[in-house]
Amino acid sequence: MTMRQKKRAILAGIIGAAMMTPTALVQADEFGSNTRYYEDDAWYDVSEWFDGNDYNPTDEAVGRWDNETWSYADELTDSDADNDWNLYSDYGYEDEDSDSDWFYDYYDDGYSYWDNDYYSNYYDTDDDGLYDAYAFYSDTDGDGFYEDFDYYTFNEDGEGQQESKQQAQNQQKQMKSTLMQLSGEVVDTKTVNVRDRKHLLASVQVPSGQSMPIDLGPAESVSVSEGDQLTANGHAVKVGDKPLFVATEASLKDGTITIDRNGKKFQGTVEKTKTVKVRGQQHQLAKVNTKNGKTMMVDLGPKTTFDRSLEEGSQITVQGVPVKVNDRVILMARQIMHDGDKMEVDRQVAQAN
Description:
By secondary structure, the protein is mainly beta.
């Protein structure tokens, strides 16, 4: 199996027969078309924001300098490991002889996001370290299964789009929209590289006696030890040949936490804004100068996210997912903090007129 084939298996199904019913395999056969997320006319003058020196998507990761080389020594001292994808292109072990082989040392979760009736996932179709496609699923009748599916490309020239879309279609047949719950004793923990983040995973022994890996999100945000009792709400997926429970909320000895899966935080000053039409909705783009002196473009989502205009010079904090749109890198914001207000960005995709 090639690196790309292994990657296409990520998040491919639900855990075992106990967590999946035959009904899950009987879904609508009408799949969404492979359509563009942004039209050309949304981008024709955006490039004028940049002079070619302060924003080079081939040389810079989102929001910071990246020298595009990777080594184990670098990993110990810095975080330069995203545009130079190499090791982290799919899933596996850094040390095959590790005692913690109950789950992989690194994997790509596609920045999966679940809400009450929809699910979304990003894809890096050409394994270059930046997402360039997006799948969106909806449970329109609340029966626990996703009836509607659409697949959008950010970068038309990206390789592997059809293969990636087929994987996304297969996921629709296998996933359930309803939350699940697991409870048990923590028997082991490990920190795992998940794209540009480090997540804490706990191996939890459930009442049946089996152990289940649970992804508890960013490692710096949660603390858990062997012997702790843990209850988690979330969704079951499969990474390679291993089951994984992706928690959205967890109850631990210190209380209940909601797990933040919105991505990295960037703070900066808004230099320019522009409104563009995306799938029939007005979206607001912003050129943001970050605190470390770098410049990034951010899609702040539907303009209705803000109940007032975002003025140039405003201080803003954004969390989101880096994607590649043609020859540009853009951060798809999931959460925005501005003037003391925290706003969640609704990424449910509108249909084009």
